[in-house]
Amino acid sequence: MERQDIDGYAAELHRALRQAEVVDPLTDRAPGIGIEDAYHISKGLLALRQKDGERVVGKKIGVTSAAVQNMLGVRQPDFGYLTDAMEVQTGGVIPIEDQLIQPRAEAEIAFVLKADLEGPGVTAADVLQATDFLMPCLEIVDSRIRDWRIKIQDTVADNASCGCFVLGHQAVDPRDLDLTTCGVVMELNGAVVATGAGAAALGSSPVACMVWLANQLGALGVALNKGEVVLSGSLVPLQPVRSGDEVRASIGGIGQVSVRFG
């Protein structure tokens, strides 16, 4: 894909983000778009957000569980960037009409790093050694692509369909938990709508997702950096949300996190 096309799609997605509007799938308009092209578009979108004053605070892994892959029809993980403008405090309110387009909530585990991780060759032991603590997290995914009609290239270009993220107050040492068996319960307006476990993450655990991300980024010359927050991927199916809803997630051994939508 030509540089001018990459820049054009990045600018289009940036406008869609700022104006809370949708665009037609990139894969419909540029059938030859590859995943590498899509990541270049994602980096272009990030650069425009940084020009707006946003600061990178971490990264996110998407499409890691079979439930989410089946829901979206996307069969491999991807990653995107987190900025300070995307963070919401637990118990806070997200105004959908002002910030989001077609949001869905998911529950996951956030890793906060105390050391850099840079692939290739990163192992599960390396991830645990580099992790300062874990936090319960809700990611509110949102697609700028019309009706969520995405292929992998569409979601990659669109910053892995990330809208915002909510972190709980708890901070837990990962070495104190079995991240394969820890259970997750997600509630919508007080009713349980989804349950899951750590093993949903790439069929193994959230640590496996972190290994994948560190090595995938390493191949692109990008590191996971000390102090960053890394969202390790949803452990439950995506839950559509609308104004007036309240979502809460409880993760065994880690804690709770909640958010309301205005």
Question: How does this structure look, described?
Answer:
The longest helix is centred in the N-terminal third of the chain and has 17 residues, at 3-19. The strands form two sheets. Strands 1, 2, 3, 5, 6, 7, 10 and 11 form an eight-stranded mixed β-sheet that branches. This protein has eight helices and 13 strands. The chain is of the alpha+beta class. It has one domain (3-261): Fumarylacetoacetate hydrolase, domain 2 (Alpha-Beta Complex), CATH 3.90.850.10. The protein is globular, with a radius of gyration of 17 Å. Helices cover 29% and strands 29% of the residues.
Secondary-structure topology with pairs:
Elements: H1 3-19, H2 26-29, H3 35-51, E1 56-62, H4 66-72, E2 78-83, E3 87-89, E4 93-94, H5 96-99, E5 104-113, H6 124-130, E6 131-141, H7 152-157, E7 162-167, E8 183-188, E9 191-197, H8 206-219, E10 229-231, E11 239-240, E12 246-251, E13 255-261
What descriptive keywords fit this protein?
5-stranded mixed sheet; single chain; 13 strands; 262 residues; alpha+beta; 8 helices; Fumarylacetoacetate hydrolase, domain 2
Biggest sheet statistics: 8 strands, mixed
Shape descriptor = globular
Helix amount = 25-40%
CATH architecture: Alpha-Beta Complex
Give the structural class.
alpha+beta
Radius of gyration: 17 Å
Tell me the distance between the termini. 40 Å
Count of distinct strands: 13
